[in-house]
Amino acid sequence: MSQTGYTAPGIHCHEFKDLPIQIGIIDLGIGNIKSIERMIIKSGGASLIINSPIQLSRVSKVILPGVGHFDTGMKKLRQLGFDTTLCELIEESRICLLGICLGMQLLCNQSEEGVLPGLGLVNAKVVRFNSDQLSDIKVPHMGWNVVKPTRTNVLIPQSFEANRFYFVHSFKVVPEDSSVIIGETDYAGNFCSAFQQDNIFGVQFHPEKSHRYGSALIQRFIEL
Length: 224
Known about the structure:
Distance between the termini: 7 Å
Number of domains: 1
CATH class: Alpha Beta
Helix content: 10-25%
Number of helices: 5
């Protein structure tokens, strides 16, 4: 059980707790790798930057970060061979995965931003914020915003203090099953800003840019 006092069903990352390297950060060349690495160290964890699928066997948890275009991210995953290997580890070895920003979107079925299919690990689609119909908002959604937990979960605690995180995105995730949503954010209406499906997690915001709130989230991920 983590120090948060809550163990989510279906999560078995503790089976790998004796590994010296806890978290692998997949480097697709399109993410804030060094910022995430520094945040993991600050939060009390150890990490390994992953450049090849074979390195995934050395870690108990994986972070998939990314910024930019959906199809670019999927092409990088395919070219480096992460698409098949990552899915196998998630489904067979029950390794824990956290997708950040574009990384969260790549876990879904498809995106309006591109034509390539996503990893399909979470039954969800990615759609654009419709700024034509919402003249009072700006796209991309950029800056600090509150993430409200929708149910008890290991990443975002229920508390009196607002959980504030830093966002930069023009597209949002829409899960087919709303029960996977663990956090919502209001930007011209509520949208899914965090989800969990068993050992698969996704956050639309950037923990590595979110100061103490981001550090606390990464620490809870380390403790799984």
